[in-house]
Amino acid sequence: MSLGVPVDGLPPYRIPLLAGEGMGEAEAWSVLTEDGHFLWALWRSLWLAGVSALGCVALSYPMALGLLRVPPRRRMAVLGLVLLPFTVGFVLRMAGWVGLLRDSGLVNQALIGLGLITDPLPMLYSEGAMLAGMIHGYLPFAFMPVLAALSARDPALEQAAADLGAGRLTIFRTVTLPVTARAGLAGFLLVFIPAAGEFVIPELLGPPEALLAGRAIWQEFFSSRDWPLAAAASMALLGVLILPILLWQRAPR
Predict the structure, then answer these.
(1) What are the TM regions of this chain, as residue ranges (predicted)?
(2) Which of 89, 173, 230, 248 is the most interior residue, by most CB within 10 Å?
């Protein structure tokens, strides 16, 4: 087999701008921009990723502040217990949510046992289940930068604010949050970028009709076998996700 001759594969290799071939890539971009289905899938993916990232950052602050109140001798042990569930495989953790949220799962059975409901609630295969899975799956990506920033902050600033009569909420809003804002933004981006292209969680926890960018790209690659359109969709998603990285690099330090 000659290394200089492209061989059909899965997906097939194509030399860009090969003479004599059609403009499949240009047609794919035209279809992508004119078809509203992928644009809607992209918008839904960005919205779910943004909500998931905000949820991860919002949970990271109380978790990190609570961990820093633990005595230093026990802090590493508690941190290990917090991160221990994340040593399990990603797919297995998401499959655990299926067992929790299904009609015969632990959550519905507990609610029925407490007399709060009589029939199981349809919690599985919903946007709420997808958000719960994304927040749980990507929480460490936001927690660790926030924890590092809170560990390095100067406690004298908060003490000075307390001496001036500020309450805990005011101290957090005016002192702690501005000092650690860059770490919170870093955690947001570390969650937002992979969550925008997520495929496993919508497949396991989302409704069948939920069309997200990752699922749409997978369908074009492996179901429709429309590789030019799938490649164009992948590049479009990549281009959208590069934008927040560029804004992050230009943000004042």
Answers:
(1) 46-65, 77-98, 129-150, 171-196, 227-248
(2) 230
- Owning domain of residue 57: 36-250
Whole-model pTM? Answer: 0.81
241 lies in some domain: yes
Residue 48 has pLDDT above 50, yes or no: yes
Residue 5 lies in a domain: no
The number of helix segments (H) and strand segments (E) in the chain equals 13, 0
Query: Cβ(206)–Cβ(130) under 8 Å?
Result: yes
Query: Quick check: 210 and 127 in contact, CB under 8 A?
Result: yes
For the chain, how many structural domains are there in total? 1
Q: Is residue 18 part of a domain?
A: no
Confidence (pLDDT) at 62: 93
Is 90 a member of any domain? yes
Q: Does residue 140 surpass a pLDDT of 80?
A: yes
Q: Are 197 and 212 in contact (CB under 8 A)?
A: no
Going by pLDDT thresholds of 50, 70 and 90, the confidence category of residue 212 is confident
Whichever domain contains 70, its CATH number is: 1.10.3720.10
The CA angle 59-80-144, to the nearest 5 degrees, is 40
Query: What are the residues whose beta carbons fall under 8 Å from the beta carbon of 215, sequence distance 6 or more?
Result: 41, 199, 202, 203
Average pLDDT over residues 89-104: 88
Amino acid at residue number 85? P
